[in-house]
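Appendix B, example 12.
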Amino acid sequence: MDKKKDAEPEVNENEETVTEERSEACESAEDKLKQELAEQKDKYIRLLAEYDNYQKRTQREKAARYADAVVDTVEKLLPIGDNLERALKAEVTSEDAVRFKEGVEMVMKQFYDALEKLGVKPIKAEGEQFDPNLHNAVMHIEDDNIDDNTVVEDFAKGYIYNDERVVRHSLVKVAN
Protein backbone atom coordinates (compact mmCIF):
# COMPACT_ATOMS: atom_id res chain seq x y z
CA MET A 1 0.00 0.00 0.00
CA ASP A 2 2.77 2.36 0.75
CA LYS A 3 4.02 1.95 -2.73
CA LYS A 4 0.75 3.14 -4.19
CA LYS A 5 0.82 6.31 -2.07
CA ASP A 6 4.31 7.23 -3.18
CA ALA A 7 3.69 6.48 -6.80
CA GLU A 8 2.41 9.23 -9.08
CA PRO A 9 -1.27 9.10 -9.67
CA GLU A 10 -2.18 7.74 -13.03
CA VAL A 11 -3.51 10.33 -15.44
CA ASN A 12 -5.97 9.15 -17.91
CA GLU A 13 -5.19 10.44 -21.41
CA ASN A 14 -8.90 11.01 -22.05
CA GLU A 15 -9.14 13.22 -18.97
CA GLU A 16 -6.18 15.28 -20.13
CA THR A 17 -7.67 15.73 -23.61
CA VAL A 18 -11.04 16.68 -22.13
CA THR A 19 -9.36 19.18 -19.81
CA GLU A 20 -7.47 20.74 -22.71
CA GLU A 21 -10.65 20.92 -24.79
CA ARG A 22 -12.50 22.55 -21.90
CA SER A 23 -9.65 25.02 -21.46
CA GLU A 24 -9.70 25.91 -25.14
CA ALA A 25 -13.49 26.19 -25.09
CA CYS A 26 -13.30 28.46 -22.05
CA GLU A 27 -10.68 30.65 -23.75
CA SER A 28 -12.80 30.77 -26.90
CA ALA A 29 -15.90 31.68 -24.89
CA GLU A 30 -13.89 34.29 -22.97
CA ASP A 31 -12.62 35.83 -26.22
CA LYS A 32 -16.16 35.86 -27.60
CA LEU A 33 -17.46 37.55 -24.45
CA LYS A 34 -14.64 40.11 -24.56
CA GLN A 35 -15.51 40.87 -28.18
CA GLU A 36 -19.21 41.25 -27.35
CA LEU A 37 -18.32 43.50 -24.41
CA ALA A 38 -16.13 45.66 -26.67
CA GLU A 39 -18.98 45.91 -29.21
CA GLN A 40 -21.49 46.87 -26.51
CA LYS A 41 -19.06 49.43 -25.08
CA ASP A 42 -18.58 50.91 -28.56
CA LYS A 43 -22.37 51.09 -29.07
CA TYR A 44 -22.75 52.78 -25.68
CA ILE A 45 -20.05 55.36 -26.43
CA ARG A 46 -21.61 56.11 -29.84
CA LEU A 47 -25.06 56.44 -28.29
CA LEU A 48 -23.71 58.76 -25.61
CA ALA A 49 -22.00 60.93 -28.24
CA GLU A 50 -25.17 60.97 -30.34
CA TYR A 51 -27.22 62.07 -27.34
CA ASP A 52 -24.72 64.80 -26.51
CA ASN A 53 -24.89 66.06 -30.11
CA TYR A 54 -28.69 65.95 -29.93
CA GLN A 55 -28.68 68.11 -26.79
CA LYS A 56 -26.31 70.64 -28.35
CA ARG A 57 -28.30 70.77 -31.59
CA THR A 58 -31.54 71.24 -29.64
CA GLN A 59 -30.00 74.12 -27.66
CA ARG A 60 -28.79 75.80 -30.87
CA GLU A 61 -32.22 75.40 -32.49
CA LYS A 62 -33.93 76.79 -29.39
CA ALA A 63 -31.59 79.81 -29.34
CA ALA A 64 -32.18 80.37 -33.06
CA ARG A 65 -35.97 80.27 -32.60
CA TYR A 66 -35.73 82.75 -29.74
CA ALA A 67 -33.53 85.04 -31.84
CA ASP A 68 -36.01 84.82 -34.73
CA ALA A 69 -38.88 85.71 -32.40
CA VAL A 70 -37.02 88.69 -30.93
CA VAL A 71 -35.99 90.00 -34.34
CA ASP A 72 -39.49 89.59 -35.81
CA THR A 73 -41.13 91.30 -32.84
CA VAL A 74 -38.66 94.18 -32.66
CA GLU A 75 -38.89 94.69 -36.42
CA LYS A 76 -42.63 95.30 -36.05
CA LEU A 77 -42.13 97.70 -33.11
CA LEU A 78 -39.46 99.87 -34.74
CA PRO A 79 -41.93 102.08 -36.67
CA ILE A 80 -43.39 103.07 -33.28
CA GLY A 81 -39.95 104.19 -32.14
CA ASP A 82 -39.45 106.07 -35.40
CA ASN A 83 -42.71 107.96 -34.85
CA LEU A 84 -41.74 108.79 -31.28
CA GLU A 85 -38.45 110.23 -32.57
CA ARG A 86 -40.33 112.33 -35.12
CA ALA A 87 -42.60 113.60 -32.35
CA LEU A 88 -39.55 114.65 -30.33
CA LYS A 89 -38.18 116.66 -33.27
CA ALA A 90 -41.30 118.84 -33.39
CA GLU A 91 -40.90 122.39 -32.14
CA VAL A 92 -43.17 123.22 -29.22
CA THR A 93 -43.87 126.56 -27.59
CA SER A 94 -46.74 126.19 -25.19
CA GLU A 95 -46.29 124.90 -21.64
CA ASP A 96 -48.70 122.00 -22.22
CA ALA A 97 -46.83 120.95 -25.37
CA VAL A 98 -43.51 121.02 -23.46
CA ARG A 99 -44.93 118.71 -20.79
CA PHE A 100 -46.35 116.45 -23.49
CA LYS A 101 -42.94 116.35 -25.18
CA GLU A 102 -41.30 115.41 -21.86
CA GLY A 103 -43.76 112.51 -21.59
CA VAL A 104 -42.87 111.37 -25.09
CA GLU A 105 -39.16 111.53 -24.11
CA MET A 106 -39.87 109.25 -21.15
CA VAL A 107 -41.73 106.77 -23.37
CA MET A 108 -38.85 106.90 -25.86
CA LYS A 109 -36.35 106.13 -23.07
CA GLN A 110 -38.47 103.17 -21.97
CA PHE A 111 -38.60 101.97 -25.56
CA TYR A 112 -34.79 102.05 -25.92
CA ASP A 113 -34.32 100.42 -22.49
CA ALA A 114 -36.65 97.57 -23.50
CA LEU A 115 -34.73 97.08 -26.77
CA GLU A 116 -31.44 97.01 -24.88
CA LYS A 117 -32.75 94.39 -22.44
CA LEU A 118 -33.63 92.24 -25.45
CA GLY A 119 -30.09 92.63 -26.82
CA VAL A 120 -31.05 95.07 -29.58
CA LYS A 121 -28.85 98.13 -30.07
CA PRO A 122 -28.91 100.99 -32.55
CA ILE A 123 -26.34 100.80 -35.34
CA LYS A 124 -23.88 103.70 -35.34
CA ALA A 125 -24.01 105.30 -38.75
CA GLU A 126 -23.27 109.02 -38.95
CA GLY A 127 -19.54 109.66 -39.35
CA GLU A 128 -18.79 105.94 -39.78
CA GLN A 129 -17.47 104.22 -42.90
CA PHE A 130 -20.26 102.83 -45.06
CA ASP A 131 -20.76 99.10 -44.41
CA PRO A 132 -23.27 97.38 -46.71
CA ASN A 133 -23.84 94.76 -44.01
CA LEU A 134 -25.18 97.46 -41.66
CA HIS A 135 -26.18 100.39 -43.85
CA ASN A 136 -28.47 100.90 -46.83
CA ALA A 137 -27.37 103.88 -48.93
CA VAL A 138 -30.40 105.73 -50.26
CA MET A 139 -28.54 108.91 -51.28
CA HIS A 140 -25.06 109.90 -52.38
CA ILE A 141 -23.44 113.32 -52.29
CA GLU A 142 -20.21 114.68 -53.73
CA ASP A 143 -18.20 116.49 -51.07
CA ASP A 144 -14.43 116.93 -51.25
CA ASN A 145 -14.26 117.80 -47.54
CA ILE A 146 -15.51 114.35 -46.48
CA ASP A 147 -13.71 111.04 -46.97
CA ASP A 148 -15.15 108.66 -49.55
CA ASN A 149 -17.71 106.14 -48.31
CA THR A 150 -18.42 108.08 -45.13
CA VAL A 151 -21.98 108.19 -43.83
CA VAL A 152 -23.01 111.84 -43.58
CA GLU A 153 -26.65 111.48 -42.57
CA ASP A 154 -28.81 108.80 -40.96
CA PHE A 155 -32.42 108.94 -42.25
CA ALA A 156 -33.72 105.90 -40.39
CA LYS A 157 -31.82 104.34 -37.52
CA GLY A 158 -30.78 100.73 -37.97
CA TYR A 159 -30.72 98.10 -35.22
CA ILE A 160 -28.68 94.99 -34.56
CA TYR A 161 -29.46 92.00 -32.32
CA ASN A 162 -26.62 90.67 -30.11
CA ASP A 163 -24.00 92.36 -32.31
CA GLU A 164 -24.49 89.69 -34.96
CA ARG A 165 -27.88 89.90 -36.64
CA VAL A 166 -29.23 93.02 -38.32
CA VAL A 167 -32.85 93.73 -37.43
CA ARG A 168 -33.06 96.71 -39.75
CA HIS A 169 -30.37 98.37 -41.87
CA SER A 170 -29.71 102.08 -41.36
CA LEU A 171 -30.99 104.22 -44.22
CA VAL A 172 -28.12 106.63 -44.89
CA LYS A 173 -26.67 109.30 -47.12
CA VAL A 174 -23.09 108.53 -48.18
CA ALA A 175 -20.35 110.85 -49.45
CA ASN A 176 -18.54 109.81 -52.63
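The chain has a mean pLDDT of 89. The CA atoms of residues 123 and 159 lie 5 Å apart.
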